[in-house]
Specification:
With 90 residues, the chain is mainly α. It has a single domain, classed as Orthogonal Bundle (Multidrug-efflux Transporter Regulator, Chain: A, Domain 2). Helix content is 64%, strand content 8%. The chain has five helices and three strands. It is globular, with a radius of gyration of 14 Å.
Length: 90
């Protein structure tokens, strides 16, 4: 049964290569951002270990991309901004 719930959670999710095409962020950068922003960006993994990006993961990628590339935040600054945003939302 655990595989059923995993399958249900993965429904509507896409591969890392599809996420890369949608967001315009290179695959290796997405992997790096997963490590740097692990509290905010945590795509599902299949039993085989493949990443599956949900719509909420894609939104987080767009947000990180905007902070780093458009607003010129450092990684540490973007992380602080995301922490503050999360605290204000709670």
């Amino acid at each position: 049964m655990p595989s059923e719930s995993r399958r249900e959670r993965a429904e509507g999710s896409i591969s890392i290569s599809a996420a890369s095409r949608i967001t315009g962020v290179e695959v290796h950068t997405l992997r790096y951002w997963e490590r740097e922003f692990c509290e905010f960006l945590d795509p599902l993994r299949t039993e085989g270990g493949q990443r599956r990006y949900r719509p909420q993961d894609i939104q987080v990628v767009f947000l990180i991309k905007r902070l780093l590339r458009d607003e010129m935040f450092s990684i540490a600054g973007a992380r602080r901004h995301l922490h503050r945003s999360r605290q204000q939302a709670a």
